């Protein structure tokens, strides 16, 4: 059985790189993108089961990324992260199809638990 693919989209290296390393250590096949446009291209090429995306990014923001992913692959598990606290996006992203929402700094164990829970609900 092939490993679960996760795409991490965040313009901040200090968030994206450690998160990718953590998820790789958990056995996931992890890719990264530095903005929404690159993230959508990577999504089309890789077809990951899980996407972790920042909300505020250059080119396409996370809302646009989420909307396009839900239009093309609604079964994808999308988890949104933001460094701006609950700036009104929490309810919006859940309404648009995100499975969860975390504020930065991301509590990695909580994020990992959310990913595992979502994958379990898909598998089970």
What does it look like?
- This protein is α/β, with parallel strands linked by helices and 124 residues long.
- The protein has one domain (5-107): 3-Layer(aba) Sandwich (Rossmann fold).
- Helices cover 48% and strands 20% of the residues.
- A five-stranded parallel β-sheet has the order 2-1-3-4-5, with helices on both faces.
- β3, α3 (62-72) and β4 (77-82) form a beta-alpha-beta unit.
- α2 (36-46) packs parallel to α3 (62-72).
- It is globular, with a radius of gyration of 13 Å.
- The chain starts with a strand and ends with a helix.
- The model has no long low-confidence stretch (mean pLDDT 93).
Summary tags:
124 residues, alpha/beta, Rossmann fold, five-stranded parallel β-sheet, 5 helices, 48% helix, 20% strand
Instruction: Briefly note the CATH topology name.
Output: Rossmann fold
What general outline do the C-alpha atoms trace?
globular
> Major beta sheet, specifics?
5 strands, parallel
- Please report the total strand number as a whole number: 5
The helix content is 40-55%
Q: What's the CATH H-level superfamily name?
A: Response regulator
| Uncertain runs | none
Q: Under the CATH scheme, which architecture would be assigned?
A: 3-Layer(aba) Sandwich
Describe the secondary structure blueprint for this structure.
Blueprint: E1 5-9, H1 13-25, E2 29-33, H2 36-46, E3 50-54, H3 62-72, E4 77-82, H4 89-96, E5 100-103, H5 108-123
Parallel strand pairs: 1-2, 1-3, 3-4, 4-5
Helix pairs in contact: 2-3
């Amino acid at each position: 059985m092939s490993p679960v693919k996760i795409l991490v989209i965040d313009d901040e290296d200090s968030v994206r790189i450690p998160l990718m390393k953590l998820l790789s250590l958990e056995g996931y096949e992890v890719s990264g993108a530095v903005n929404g446009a690159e993230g959508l291209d990577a999504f089309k090429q890789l077809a990951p089961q899980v996407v972790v995306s920042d909300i505020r990014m250059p080119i396409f923001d996370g809302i646009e990324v989420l909307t396009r992913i839900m239009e093309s692959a609604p079964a994808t598990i999308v988890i949104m992260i933001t460094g701006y606290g609950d700036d009104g996006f929490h309810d919006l992203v859940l309404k648009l199809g995100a499975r969860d929402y975390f504020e930065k700094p991301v509590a990695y164990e909580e994020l990992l638990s959310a990913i595992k829970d979502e994958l379990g609900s898909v598998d089970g």
